[in-house]
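Per-residue structure
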Amino acid sequence: MDNHIYICIDLKSFYASVECAERGLDSMTTDLVVADPSREKGTICLAVSPSLKAKGVKNRCRVFEIPEHLEYIMAPPRMKLYIDYSTRIYKIYLKYISKDDIQVYSIDEAFLDVTTYLKLYNMDATTLGKTIIKDIWDTLGIGASCGIGTNLYLTKIALDITAKHSPDWIGYLDEEKFKAELWFHEPLTDFWRIGRGTAKRLAKIGISNMYEIAHGDYEMLKKLFGKDVDILIDHAWGRESTTIADIKSYKTKSHSLSNSQVLMRDYAYDEARLILKEMVELQVLKLVEQRVVTNNISLYVTYSKNIKPTVTGSTTLSVYTNSLTVIKKEMLKIYERIADTDTPIRKIGISCNNLLDESYEQYDLFTDPKALDREKKISHAVLNIKGRYGKSAVLKGMNLLKEGTTRERLHQIGGHKSGE
């Protein structure tokens, strides 16, 4: 495999840094949290500025967990603004690196394959990383940290673990440096792809660090992790063969469209049924807009305070379709089959699976082609109106009920206020 050099740039406390930049404040010295003040104190802080973190306030904490003696700015989330800043930062990356060598990992993180650019700019990777980070700061006032590595995995670990302890927020790892510095690092959950569940399973067989995974009993590990064992062991040795080019050329075999909603209070069975209908309406509009059809739908329901385990259900339709009538009817059947009528509900998730191009749409003996065509024309008309006059230009009567959430969610991005 050809030798690669990657850098991964992470925008520090991104949402909070954007809010500071918008106010002309330094995110490194300003105490600010991004949280919706209109919600209860139990609401999660989407971001905490670096200066508050330095005072012991944890990222993604709840508002009531912030010590009362601390004074801070509370900024309501503005997701559209954050997306705009992320786009502007991506354009800064493009000043240095081709889009073919950039892989956006999240709104505040991106991998750059800088292998062929180091000679072009006559720079080493650290200098190039510092140059890009400085450009982001000088242009937008957003601080960033940087991981550098000889493969994508090491680059991510250099960012997540090594850069945090570096005064210039830059970390570097190759396989040998990884083994020398991080083989015995604990806890294992600091490493990418190792969650608490994985760490607990490893702890049960006496494994608490990467060295012990790398030298562990293969058959025992395989019994615990199945087909994922080889990835786990490769990462324990600091190995990763996937490149950005591999990621960009990958075509998934199965497509789905999912949507979930955390409710802001406990909903009774009938109230949650209304929410489900709203969600299905919006989901089907997406299917029509993307000109795809589905033959399998699924639903999960999570109860308040986990009083009972989450329940799931799915059904395979007799045809491939994006008909609202068909999909809503079948989704409600699943809901009525799996949901407890007497337990308050706090979260609902739906998914349309096995998506295919609309040209694969099918009919059965019970389908009225004229009615289906009329329904589709109505959907396209609604999409055209929304595209011209805004997402909330067309609402149904159920959306106006006090239990409904569609009106509010139409002005949100990712479940948070867009800031419009």
